[in-house]
Write a structure and sequence with these properties.
alpha/beta; six-stranded parallel β-sheet; 173 residues; two-stranded antiparallel ribbon; Rossmann fold; single chain
Length: 173
């Protein structure tokens, strides 16, 4: 079986090094390159055609959201996974709308990153369980306090989150 080929993109080399160390401990994963900014990530993704691109939301010269859109438009087979400190709905929703198939919180990357890569490689989506819980709680709070139904886009995201949560829970059992 061919290894899962991963491209790393973060503006801080120490973060990329940490990701690399974590991933290189997995025999089925191979880091094929590193990018320090958005334009570099797009060019390397176009050249190397990785299976997975790991991105941060905030990048030098652009945003991870714009990079994800560009990669998703050029190479639909490439799975974009965000690794971010941001867990609020705006960032998560925007990431998935941009074509991401995974979203991992930076503080849980050590436990969730490998799972995310494997899930996305198999065609699934992945969301760190702590983000899922936080977003579901926020939707419930908002819906109870406003006493109004979810909008169509909120309902779709809620269904996506429920599906991801069920998938994550089945993998942890």
């Amino acid at each position: 079986m061919d290894p899962i080929r991963v491209l790393l993109c973060h503006q801080h080399p120490i973060i990329r090094s940490g990701w690399r160390v974590l991933l290189e401990n997995e025999p089925e994963i191979r880091v094929i390159g590193e990018a320090a900014n958005g334009p570099e990530a797009v060019a390397l993704a176009d050249y190397w055609q990785p299976d997975i691109v790991l991105l941060d939301i905030k990048l030098a010269h652009t945003t991870g959201i714009l990079v994800a859109r560009e990669i998703a438009a050029k190479a639909k087979h490439v799975g974009v996974v965000f690794v971010s400190v941001h867990s609020d709905e705006e960032y998560v929703s925007e990431a998935f709308r941009a074509g991401a198939r995974g979203y991992v919180l930076a503080d849980s990357a050590q436990t969730d990153l490998i799972q995310a890569i494997r899930a996305v490689t198999k065609g699934s989506r992945f969301l760190s369980p702590s983000v899922t819980s936080e977003l579901l709680s926020e939707y419930a709070r908002r819906n109870r306090s406003a006493n109004e139904p979810l909008s169509e886009s909120e309902r779709k995201l809620f269904c996506l989150l429920e599906g991801i949560q069920a998938f994550c829970n089945s993998r942890r059992d």
